[in-house]
Design a protein that fits this description.
Layout (H helix, E strand, L loop, with lengths): L4 H12 L3 H6 L4 H7 L15 H12 L2 H5 L1 H8 L3 H25 L6 H8 L2 H24 L1 H10 L7 H4 L10 H16 L1 H27 L14 H12 L19 H30 L11 H10 L2 H35 L18 H17 L2 H29 L14 H15 L3 H25 L7 H10 L12
Helix pairs in contact: 4-13, 4-15, 4-17, 6-14, 7-14, 7-15, 7-19, 7-20, 8-9, 8-19, 9-12, 9-17, 9-18, 9-19, 9-21, 10-17, 12-17, 12-18, 13-15, 13-17, 16-17, 17-18, 19-20, 19-21
Length: 508
C-alpha cells in the first residue's frame, strides 16, 4: 500500500512536533518577532505612518469617555460620592500596568500587544490564553461602548422633538429588541478602518480633540452648580462599595494598550510607543477624576441611580438650555465613535499577529495591497461586533471585558519581571521605575480587582476560557508555526534570535 506524499509529510510534521507540555512552554524569540514585524499573509506589509501624536490619540481615543459617558450611572450607586476615589484606584492599577506596557512596547514593538509579550516570556500556552483574553477585551469592549450610543442619539434627537423607540435604541434586557445606533456606529468604524489606517488615525485625532473639549465644557458648567454637601457622607456604601466600583470602572482604562497594537505602523516604535502610553494615561486619569468630582458636586449621588446619559441630564438641568444638551449629546456620540474606531483597530492588529503565528486562521493576516489594512479580518471582526452590540446588554459586556483585561495586564507585569531576570542585556527604550516593586504591585492590584468582580462575571470568564481551550486544541496547536519547528531548529533559532535578519524566513 502506497502512502500519499502529502500524508507522509503531515505524519512527519506531527512526529516532529513537541509534546503538549513542551509546546505550551515554547517561547517565540523576540528577534524573530521583530524580524517578522510588518509582514503578513501574502507578503503585503502594514504601512508605518504614525508619529507620537497619532499613537497618543489612538490610546486616548480608545480610553477617554467610556466610564464617564456610558457607565457613570451604574458605578456611582456602588461607591456614592467616593466614585472619584474609585477612578483613582482603577487609574493607579492601570498606571502600574501601563509602565510595564511601556517597557514591553519599546522592547517588542510589534502588533500583538500583550499576546506577543506573553509568547516571548511565558510560552505558547500562556500566549494563547492572553490572546483569547484580548479578543474578549477588545471586541467585547467595542460592543459594550457602542451599546451606550442609543442613549445619546435620543438625547440629540430630543432637541428636535424626535426620538428612537426603545425597541430600536436599547439592547435586549433593557427594553429593546435591537440597538440600531450601536450597530451603525460599529459598521461606520469598520468601513473607515478598511479604507486605511492613516486616514482613520487623523479622523480619530480630530474626534479626540472634540471629546476633550466637551468634557471640559461639562466641568465648567457643572462646577457653576457645585455643592460641597453632595460629598457627605463620602462612603455611604463603605470601602467595599468603592472597591466594587473601582473594579467596574477599570473598564474605562482598557484603551491605553491600544497604542501598543500599532507597533508595526509606528514610524519610530521604540521611542514613540512608551511616550504615547504614558502621556495618554496622564491625560485620561486627570479628566476622569475632574469630571467625576464635577458631576457629584452638581448632583447628589442618589440622583444617578437609574439615570441614563447622566452628564447630558446635568447640563440640561443646570443651564435649562436645550441647545447645550444637544451639543454635548452630539459630541458624546462622536466620542463613543472614536472609542469604537480605535479599539476595533486594535482587535484587528492582534488577530493579524496571532494569524502570523498560525494560532488563528490565515484570513485574519491578509493585508490588502491597495489599502495596506487587513480588510478581510476587519470585515469579519466588525460584523461580529456589530451583531453583539445590537443584541447583548451593556452590564454583562462591561464586567466580562474588565476581567479579561485585568488578566492580560497581570501577564504583562510578569513579562517585565521575566525579561529583566533572563534577558538583562536587551536594550530598553523605557524602563519601569522602582523595579521590581512596580510590576509586582501591578500584578497584585490586577488580582485584587479581579477578586472584586461578581460571581456571574467569573462564570462568564470561565466559560470563555473553556471555549478558548477548545479552539486551541482544535486549531492553534495543530497550526502553530513555532511548534512546527524541530527541537534542533528551535534551539538554533532561539540562539540566533538576537540577529533577526538571518532567521526571517524560517517560520514563514
Amino acid at each position: 500500500m502506497t502512502v500519499p506524499a502529502n500524508t507522509k509529510t503531515r505524519t512527519a510534521e506531527a512526529a516532529a512536533r513537541p509534546g503538549l507540555g513542551a509546546q505550551l512552554l515554547r517561547r517565540k524569540p523576540i528577534g524573530q518577532m521583530v524580524s517578522e514585524a510588518g509582514s503578513s499573509e501574502g507578503g503585503t506589509p502594514l504601512v508605518r505612518s504614525f508619529g507620537v501624536l497619532q499613537l497618543t490619540m489612538i490610546s486616548v481615543g480608545a480610553t477617554l469617555g467610556t466610564g464617564i459617558l456610558v457607565i457613570l450611572g451604574e458605578s456611582v450607586p456602588l461607591a456614592g460620592p467616593a466614585i472619584w476615589i474609585s477612578f483613582v484606584i482603577a487609574g493607579l492599577a492601570a498606571l502600574l500596568s501601563a509602565v510595564s506596557y511601556a517597557e514591553m512596547a519599546g522592547l517588542v514593538p510589534v502588533a500583538g500587544s500583550s499576546y506577543s509579550y506573553a509568547y516571548a516570556t511565558m510560552g505558547e500556552g500562556m500566549a494563547w490564553i492572553c490572546g483569547w483574553c484580548l479578543v474578549l477585551e477588545y471586541a467585547v469592549s467595542v460592543a459594550a461602548v457602542a451599546v451606550g450610543a442609543g442613549q445619546y442619539v435620543n438625547e440629540t434627537l430630543a432637541a428636535f422633538g424626535q426620538f428612537l423607540p426603545e425597541a430600536m435604541s436599547q439592547p435586549p434586557g433593557d427594553g429593546g429588541v435591537v440597538n440600531i445606533p450601536a450597530m451603525v456606529i460599529v459598521v461606520l468604524a469598520m468601513v473607515l478602518l478598511v479604507r486605511g489606517a492613516r486616514e482613520s488615525a487623523w479622523i480619530n485625532t480630530a474626534i479626540v480633540v472634540i471629546k476633550v473639549g466637551i468634557l471640559l465644557f461639562f466641568c465648567a458648567v457643572a462646577f457653576s452648580a457645585f455643592n460641597a454637601g453632595n460629598f457627605a457622607p463620602l462612603l455611604p456604601m463603605g470601602a467595599a462599595g468603592v472597591s466594587a466600583a473601582a473594579s467596574s470602572v477599570f473598564f474605562s482604562y482598557i484603551g491605553f494598550d491600544a497604542a501598543s497594537t500599532a507597533g508595526e505602523e509606528a514610524k519610530n516604535p521604540k521611542r514613540d510607543l512608551p511616550r504615547a502610553i504614558m502621556l495618554s494615561m496622564v491625560i485620561v486619569t486627570s479628566i476622569y477624576v475632574l469630571v467625576a468630582v464635577a458631576a457629584i458636586g452638581a448632583r447628589p449621588w442618589g440622583w444617578f441611580d437609574g439615570t441614563e446619559a447622566a452628564l447630558v441630564q446635568i447640563l440640561h438641568e443646570v443651564t435649562g438650555q436645550p441647545w447645550i444638551a444637544l451639543v454635548f449629546s452630539a459630541g458624546a456620540v462622536l466620542a463613543i465613535a472614536s472609542i469604537v474606531l480605535t479599539v476595533l483597530y486594535g482587535q484587528t492588529r492582534i488577530l493579524l499577529s496571532m494569524s502570523r503565528d498560525g494560532m488563528v486562521p490565515r484570513i485574519f493576516g491578509r493585508v490588502s495591497r491597495r489599502t495596506g489594512t487587513p480588510v478581510a479580518g476587519t470585515l469579519i471582526v466588525g460584523t461580529a461586533v456589530a451583531l453583539t452590540a445590537g443584541l447583548v446588554p451593556l452590564g454583562a459586556l462591561a464586567d466580562a471585558t474588565s476581567i479579561g483585561t485585568l488578566f492580560a495586564f497581570a501577564l504583562v507585569n510578569v513579562a517585565v519581571i521575566y525579561l529583566r531576570r533572563n534577558r538583562p542585556e536587551l536594550k530598553r527604550s523605557f524602563r519601569v521605575p522602582l523595579y521590581p516593586l512596580t510590576p509586582v504591585l501591578g500584578t497584585l492590584m490586577c488580582a485584587y480587582l479581579m477578586a472584586n468582580l461578581g460571581a456571574d462575571t467569573w462564570v462568564v470568564f470561565g466559560g470563555w476560557m473553556l471555549v478558548g481551550v477548545a479552539l486551541y486544541f482544535g486549531y492553534g496547536r495543530r497550526n502553530s508555526k513555532v511548534a512546527a519547528l524541530s527541537e534542533q531548529d528551535y534551539r538554533e533559532l532561539s540562539t540566533r534570535a538576537s540577529n533577526p535578519e538571518p532567521v526571517k524566513a524560517e517560520l514563514s
